[in-house]
Amino acid sequence: MHLLLVEDDSMLAEAICDGARQTAWTIDHVGDAAGARLALVDHAYAAVLLDIGLPGESGLSVLRSLRSRYDPTPVLMLTARGQLSERILGLDAGADDYLVKPFQFDELWARVRAVIRRSQGRVIPVFRHGDIQLDRSRRVVTRGGVEVPLSAHEYRTLLALLERPGHVVTRDHLQDVVYGTASTIESNTIAVFIHQLRRKLGDDLIRTVHGHGYVIGQAQP
């Protein structure tokens, strides 16, 4: 299991990381929202332990950004405040569970295991277009039954297009899905990902609708 911890309290973070390693899990730690966004773009995690009270930008903002990219990674929110209204905000934003500080570490790991189990039991759609299949539960893409390795950025680009077959998806929307709304990237970066997907999955898979964006399948009027 590979976990991400987003926590600005260095002593608590060190204790959680030590506990994760003793449980034979690998864990990455970042202390703010910016670090969390970068880590979540570049890696796939079994679960995220997300502190709501981060310096500057709230953990809720990180969570909303994650879900806006259609990323179903289970998230366990950590907070020093246990008000019902705050828990509701977190759950409505897409959190899978909530744990109020201070907590027992045995309970923390039990909740982590539980959110991972629940995520594995979800019915997550498999997207198909011709002989291309994207399995969201395993984050695997195949063509003609053969797995095609994709980078995390290429995978998210393809997923955003397959979720709306026949509809033009704008470059701005693809940028938000791949990088999040707060990121600034080079103007041709999405075009590079589209080029790579065509190279790996077929030149005729994705059509460019000039001045608008990209589409998989016949564009609807």
Describe the structure.
By secondary structure, the chain is of the alpha/beta class. It folds into two domains: 2-121, 3-Layer(aba) Sandwich (Rossmann fold), CATH 3.40.50; 126-216, Arc Repressor Mutant, subunit A, CATH 1.10.10. It is built from eight helices and twelve strands. Strands 2-1-3-4-5 form a five-stranded parallel β-sheet, with helices on both faces. Strand 6 and strand 7 form a beta hairpin. The radius of gyration is 19 Å and the shape is elongated.
Instruction: Tell me the total number of β-strands.
Output: 12
SSE run? EHEHEHEHEHEEEEHEHHEE
Structural class: alpha/beta
**Percentage of helical residues?**
40-55%
Backbone shape: elongated
What is the H level of CATH, i.e. the homologous superfamily of the largest domain? Response regulator
Radius of gyration: 19 Å
Strand order of the largest sheet: 2-1-3-4-5
Total tally of structural domains: 2
CATH classification, class level of the largest domain = Alpha Beta
Number of helices: 8
Write the layout of secondary structure elements.
Blueprint: E1 2-6, H1 10-22, E2 26-30, H2 33-42, E3 47-51, H3 59-68, E4 75-79, H4 84-93, E5 97-100, H5 105-121, E6 126-129, E7 132-135, E8 140-143, E9 146-147, H6 152-162, E10 169-170, H7 171-179, H8 189-201, E11 206-209, E12 213-216
Parallel strand pairs: 1-2, 1-3, 3-4, 4-5
Antiparallel strand pairs: 6-7, 7-8, 8-9, 10-12, 11-12
Helix pairs in contact: 2-3, 6-7, 6-8
